[in-house]
């Protein structure tokens, strides 16, 4: 099973609603089980530099089946994943905002959000993930 376009759109809509509640425009990306981009939305006035980051957060969450928030925590100097951000040609993101999407405990895709603080990005990603 993998995320399809209809599910991705529903996830993005829920994430966008949360971003609007926070008053923070965001970039939101959803990838399928293979890490391929299914849907993306850049809210009006969301940072241009966060387009790439949101997509890479989604990919990272699917590639390692972990939130980017948790990966960031475990990638500090001396921790088990230190240096992981340099792997995969620098595609790995260790900022909060990426969350694997699961159905019945199986990862079927991921969401990546960027455009605010790490706390805001994670909250918006959680709202999107909850729509699945």
Cα end-to-end separation: 13 Å
Please trace the helix and strand order, writing H or E for each element.
HEEHHEEH
Main beta-sheet strand count, sense and barrel state: 4 strands, antiparallel
The residue ranges in which pLDDT falls below 50 over 5 or more consecutive positions are: none
Q: Count every helix, treating DSSP H or I runs of 4 or more residues as helices.
A: 4
Strand content: 15-25%
What assembly state would you assign to the polypeptide chains in this entry? single chain
> How would you sum up the global shape?
globular
Describe the structure.
By secondary structure, this protein is of the alpha+beta class. Helix content is 40%, strand content 20%. The chain contains four helices and four strands, in the order H-E-E-H-H-E-E-H. It has a four-stranded antiparallel beta sheet. Helix 1 crosses helix 4 (118-130). The two termini are 13 Å apart.
Structural key phrases:
single chain, 132 residues, alpha+beta, four-stranded antiparallel β-sheet, 4 helices, 4 strands, 40% helix
In short:
This protein is α+β, with helices and mostly antiparallel strands. It has 4 helices and 4 strands, in the order H-E-E-H-H-E-E-H. 47% of the residues are buried.
Secondary structure blueprint with pairings:
Elements: H1 5-22, E1 27-32, E2 37-42, H2 49-64, H3 68-73, E3 98-103, E4 106-114, H4 118-130
Antiparallel strand pairs: 1-2, 1-4, 3-4
